[in-house]
């Protein structure tokens, strides 16, 4: 796959031994899901791969702050959803603790910032600085995701600092699906909300990403990379599984497909992943290079057999 970066390839080739058998204690792999469909999709891919290799995935639904604490305290082994730079403060905390390895940059080309629907763009809002003049049309509300999410915290800080004149606006916190349902219900009424790619919302909704939010979300409309983090102790104890995750690298089109299956078709994340894997055997060869099953058999063959059934 094009998304397999040279950095990830070098890491896989040099940092972790090939065909490394894991102890039976590595059989359960614990990781978390903040309730975002993109991470649910990639977690689903990981679960299918792990199960095909004889491991048991244990996925806990945890908010972003709680998920990072769980990783820091050894309650989970991995996190596939470290969005940077939006989650920089959590990374700073983990880096200071010295207990975490960055196994891979698993996605590039992502973005994450405020956006408006077609009615909002038609009202002339294309930049953060345009919002306050249209406060009444927007109801003075900005729709965010789940409470505690770093993006929500950035919005709340912007409101409290009265940046762009938004000091009297309200942040409405909800989950991803509730937020998107609000956008869908808005019809011809302007609405401003958190938007990101990859996500099928970019196909289903006429979205205009707002410029001007570099301070809050970073340049290039909150341009982001996503990273896989793991506990150092787990990496050392379970080198075979760690090698898999060091090579597990995605791309935006792939995630859009998987997320569409989950959101639009109601598919289970693992079912969507299994279907995609069956149609993309080259990805299996890339991700499973040098990886074995838990009992030491060739990993790629095991995964191909599992998804073909």
UniProtKB/TrEMBL annotation:
Residues 28-279 form the ABC-type glycine betaine transport system substrate-binding domain. Gene3D superfamilies: Glycine betaine-binding periplasmic protein, domain 2, Periplasmic binding protein-like II. It holds the Pfam family OpuAC. Residues 1-20 form the signal peptide. Transmembrane segments: none annotated. InterPro entries: ABC_choline_sub-bd (IPR017783), ABC_Gly_betaine_transp_sub-bd (IPR007210). One of its GO terms (molecular function) is choline binding. This is Glycine betaine/carnitine transport binding protein GbuC. The lineage of its organism: Bacteria, Pseudomonadati, Pseudomonadota, Alphaproteobacteria, Rhodobacterales. The gene is gbuC_2.
